[in-house]
């Protein structure tokens, strides 16, 4: 039976990259858990200093991190997950919760490589670096409702989190995992359009970025369908409908849909390859 997570738990990071740092900083800032109760290990001085600078204990080995942590976040690159877990397997007792954010590594693979069932898999994205991540959680067979609540709170510290079945994670990857890149392209294109229309580059980029941010906030906070919000800003024979006409003529919506579907398919292919 899984041991409940207490307020005095310790959190370890296997892999001390930018995503792990963003999560650690977000959790510390939120007050959910102080950095003094977090652990990691890394060979590179710069990464060690990045974590130690805000109070995380930095050890010499991943084994030490696992030994000293009740909850372990696996945040290494997918291609080395099997090798890393093979080394850590003897130290992953049943009382420990293993949370993987390694893209494309399925729960069955994690369980096979560790002999461990108390697992949770999370697909998050890079806006965690600014506390605006979209994360989706799926539970391993021995993960408890309390484990789910704990991990939801953890990733809620760097954005918003939802729970879904693992079969949906490839689609999640195609939408929110890869999605920031689509939005960056849109922001860049909008800014370029502003420059073409005569705006200074810095002003165009600021306006494009803030416009995307504001539109996203309107969609979330108003609860209205984006189509309704679009209609509300589109006046008869006005400027907006002229722009939308060009987007529709060039297949804007179909192109975005195709990008999400292509990324989802690629995620599925990569998952099978890793397995």
TrEMBL record:
EC number annotated for this UniProt entry: 1.5.1.2
Location(s) in or outside the cell: Cytoplasm
Any one GO biological process: response to salt stress
Pathway(s) of this molecule: Amino-acid biosynthesis; L-proline biosynthesis; L-proline from L-glutamate 5-semialdehyde: step 1/1
Highest taxon of source: Eukaryota
SUPFAM superfamilies registered for this protein in UniProt: 6-phosphogluconate dehydrogenase C-terminal domain-like, NAD(P)-binding Rossmann-fold domains
InterPro entries: 6-PGluconate_DH-like_C_sf, NAD(P)-bd_dom_sf, P5C_Rdtase_cat_N, P5CR-like_CS, P5CR_dimer, Pyrroline-COOH_reductase
Residues in Pyrroline-5-carboxylate reductase catalytic N-terminal domain copies: 11-104
Principal cellular location given in the protein's record: cytoplasm
UniProt KW keywords: Amino-acid biosynthesis, Cytoplasm, NADP, Oxidoreductase, Proline biosynthesis
PROSITE patterns for this protein: P5CR (PS00521)
GO cellular component: cytoplasm
Family: Belongs to the pyrroline-5-carboxylate reductase family.
UniProt protein name: Pyrroline-5-carboxylate reductase
Source organism phylogeny: Eukaryota, Viridiplantae, Streptophyta, Embryophyta, Tracheophyta
